[in-house]
């Protein structure tokens, strides 16, 4: 390792020396430019190589060089940079198109039933599934209901549907669906901040929004602190025993923002991010990006669940 | 080039790539907004050790070398904040020998950096250790505090090293902070009336007053967050390359930045929409208009000085370019 660092140090030194030589050559050229041929013819050749002369000529060029020339060259450079940037992104787009084509082929093969492994895999590890949907796409309730019916057909028992702005809570009305609606939720329908749940063909569904995440934890924190303020009037309680994660879980249950941790989270949106899903429930959840909701496919869900069944977690150990 | 143990390594290909290529790519990338904060989960070290027959001690040294390279690339790209998930509270469940190895390595590197503080200050890098540092032994804790104090004034790159950290523990740390305030009669009424907001809780967390990450990179193809930055990554792009941590290269970073730039408009839009829903750690992105004079690269022929950090698996050596 030390020998390598020495070798690379030598390499870098030689590169530096070459760079310095090139700079000297370019400085000499710059020196010659601003001066008229008349002055050049008068001065002896040795003077042109003197350092004071080179410095003077450099300063002259910098002061009296055309500003328009400089601006023009920076605009040209910016144009070239922009061109290369667009070319780079065209390459990225081509790669995405290629991976989209591969994905479509894979979905076609899965839906044709060629591979038995995609038909017979175990869902025993999947106790709870969460689906995050972009709020703009969550307005398409028909797509959401289709997604839920697919999940129900695969055999998923518990689903949490999340969108950041609470559109799902306002728009989804299970009473109007063709499929049977078993029971009503535990909260009032008009209350957006409440976690609502429905039973949907032997599948329980929980609707969540951004306020169930951070704000819910803040309310639980407030509950925890106020509870301890009442009980610990002497101030002699130790914070390590008062504020544990187990106590926080109990506080979340007390304020009504508790829920099980999903094993798998499917993200339907333009970017792979969880859009503020409740942080307390996201610790060891596998997050898979499924693309936009409008182009969702049954076989893509099958593939995601199959990939999840093959995952191994060691939980930090 | 073969390593001392007779194994060919991708790291050597990285060193052989001409510096001109890095500079060109970064300059082209900088035409569009660049991420301000990148977070890393260093996964796949043990798989790499099995693949190349390294011992535990060797692989963590190797992982550290790669971390130095990645920090260098982030610095060249103009990234302002880098967060590294060095050690989780859950990692204490590992074998005691392995835990002790990691702790010894961290202590060794901390001591090396403290000895070579002029270099770190010249590079203008600030190091902050975040996590429940009370779980570390006293010598490590003192070294960490000393390092944080000595680099407190540096601004060019802030490196958050998450030691003994989990996101749920960070939230509890925030709650403890609120409790301490309430005991001193500040905000008691707020607590009593249940008026504590997410913003109040965030102010007491480890990452208070720092921007949320723009990209979170987890290597080894794993798609979970493992209790890391759960609160801060609401609108952060998750990138999970299949390569193992020691195999993460400059090109993976370039790809991550390209993906981020493609999704930048969408992420900005949803972040601004959700700001009204109480997201305090809004990503404070401004549209960065880059000109050639803003990019700090080795490539420029004009004056100025930029530092390149090379790692030699034994410390940090600064190398000056023109």
From TrEMBL, chain A:
Cofactor(s) this protein requires: Mg(2+)
InterPro entries on file: Nus1/NgBR, UPP_synth-like_sf
GO MF terms, alphabetically ordered: ditrans,polycis-polyprenyl diphosphate synthase [(2E,6E)-farnesyl diphosphate specific] activity
Keyword tags: Endoplasmic reticulum, Magnesium, Membrane, Transferase, Transmembrane, Transmembrane helix
GO cellular component, one term: dehydrodolichyl diphosphate synthase complex
Subcellular location: Endoplasmic reticulum membrane
Catalysed reactions, semicolon-separated: n isopentenyl diphosphate + (2E,6E)-farnesyl diphosphate = a di-trans,poly-cis-polyprenyl diphosphate + n diphosphate
EC number: 2.5.1.87
Top-level taxon: Eukaryota
Pathway: Protein modification; protein glycosylation
Predominant location: endoplasmic reticulum
Spans traversing the lipid bilayer: 83-102
Enzyme class, first EC level, given as a word: transferase
Family to which this protein belongs: Belongs to the UPP synthase family.
Entry protein name: ditrans,polycis-polyprenyl diphosphate synthase [(2E,6E)-farnesyldiphosphate specific]
UniProtKB/TrEMBL annotation, chain B:
GO cellular component: endoplasmic reticulum
Pfam family, one: Prenyltransf
GO MF annotations, alphabetized: ditrans,polycis-polyprenyl diphosphate synthase [(2E,6E)-farnesyl diphosphate specific] activity
Xref: Gene3D superfamilies: Decaprenyl diphosphate synthase-like
InterPro entries: UPP_synth-like, UPP_synth-like_CS, UPP_synth-like_sf
Any one GO BP annotation for this protein: polyprenol biosynthetic process
Enzyme class per UniProt: transferase
Keywords of this entry: Transferase
Enzyme Commission designation: 2.5.1.-
Similarity section: Belongs to the UPP synthase family.
Protein name as annotated: Alkyl transferase
Upper classification of the organism: Eukaryota, Viridiplantae, Streptophyta, Embryophyta, Tracheophyta
Gene: LOC109707847
């Amino acid at each position: 390792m030390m020998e390598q660092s020495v070798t690379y140090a030598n390499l870098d030194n030689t590169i530096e020396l070459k760079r310095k030589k090139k700079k000297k050559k370019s400085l000499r050229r710059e020196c010659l430019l601003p001066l008229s041929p008349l002055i050049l013819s008068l001065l002896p050749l040795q003077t042109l190589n003197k350092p004071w002369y080179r410095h003077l000529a450099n300063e002259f060029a910098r002061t009296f060089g055309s500003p328009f020339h400089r601006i023009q060259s920076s605009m040209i450079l910016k144009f070239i940079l922009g061109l290369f940037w667009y070319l780079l992104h065209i390459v990225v787009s081509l790669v995405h198109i290629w991976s989209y084509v591969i994905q479509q082929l894979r979905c076609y093969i899965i839906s044709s039933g060629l591979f038995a492994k995609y038909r017979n895999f175990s869902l025993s590890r999947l106790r709870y599934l969460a689906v995050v949907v972009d709020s703009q796409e969550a307005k398409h309730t028909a797509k959401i209901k289709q997604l839920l019916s697919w999940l129900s057909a695969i055999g998923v028992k518990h689903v949490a549907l999340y969108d950041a702005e609470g559109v799902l809570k306002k728009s989804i009305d299970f009473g109007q669906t063709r499929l049977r609606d078993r029971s009503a939720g535990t909260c009032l329908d008009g209350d957006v901040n409440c976690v609502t749940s429905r039973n949907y063909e032997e599948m329980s569904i929980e609707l969540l929004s951004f306020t169930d995440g951070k704000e819910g934890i803040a309310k639980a924190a407030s509950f925890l602190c106020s509870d301890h303020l009442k009980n610990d009037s002497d101030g002699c309680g130790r914070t390590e025993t008062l504020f544990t994660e187990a106590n926080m879980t109990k506080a979340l249950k007390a304020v009504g923002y508790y829920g099980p941790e999903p094993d798998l989270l499917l993200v339907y949106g333009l970017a792979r991010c969880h859009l503020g899903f409740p942080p307390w429930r996201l610790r060891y959840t596998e997050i898979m990006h499924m693309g936009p909701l409008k182009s969702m496919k049954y076989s893509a869900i099958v593939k995601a669940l199959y990939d999840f069944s093959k995952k191994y977690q060691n939980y930090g150990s | 080039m073969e390593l001392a143990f007779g194994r060919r390594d991708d790291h050597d290909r990285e060193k052989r790539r001409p510096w001109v290529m890095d500079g060109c790519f970064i300059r082209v990338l900088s035409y569009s907004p660049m991420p301000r904060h990148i977070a890393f989960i260093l996964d796949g070290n043990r798989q790499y050790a099995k693949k190349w027959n390294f011992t535990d001690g060797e692989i963590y040294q190797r992982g550290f070398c790669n971390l130095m390279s990645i920090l260098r690339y982030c610095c060249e790209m103009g990234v302002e904040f880098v967060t590294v998930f060095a050690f989780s509270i859950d990692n204490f469940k590992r074998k005691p020998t392995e835990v002790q190895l990691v702790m010894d390595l961290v202590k060794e590197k901390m001591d090396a950096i403290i000895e070579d503080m002029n270099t770190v200050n010249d590079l203008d890098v600030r190091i902050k250790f975040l996590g429940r540092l009370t779980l570390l032994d006293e010598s490590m804790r003192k070294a960490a505090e000393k390092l944080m104090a000595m680099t407190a004034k540096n601004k060019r790159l802030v490196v958050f090293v998450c030691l003994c950290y989990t996101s749920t523990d960070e939230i509890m740390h925030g709650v403890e902070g609120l409790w301490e305030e309430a005991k001193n009669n500040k905000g008691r009424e707020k607590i009593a009336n249940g008026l504590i907001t997410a913003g109040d809780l965030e102010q007491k967390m480890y990452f208070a007053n720092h921007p949320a990450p723009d990209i979170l990179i987890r290597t080894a193809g794993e798609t979970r967050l493992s209790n890391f930055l759960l609160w801060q990554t609401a609108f952060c792009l998750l990138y999970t390359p299949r390569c193992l941590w020691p195999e993460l290269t400059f090109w993976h970073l370039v790809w991550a930045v390209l993906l981020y730039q493609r999704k930048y408009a969408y992420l900005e839009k949803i972040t601004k929409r959700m700001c009204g829903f109480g997201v305090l750690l809004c990503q404070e992105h401004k549209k960065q208009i880059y000109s050639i004079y803003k990019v700090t690269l080795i490539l420029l022929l004009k004056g100025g000085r930029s530092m390149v950090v090379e790692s030699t698996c034994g410390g940090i050596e600064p190398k000056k370019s023109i």
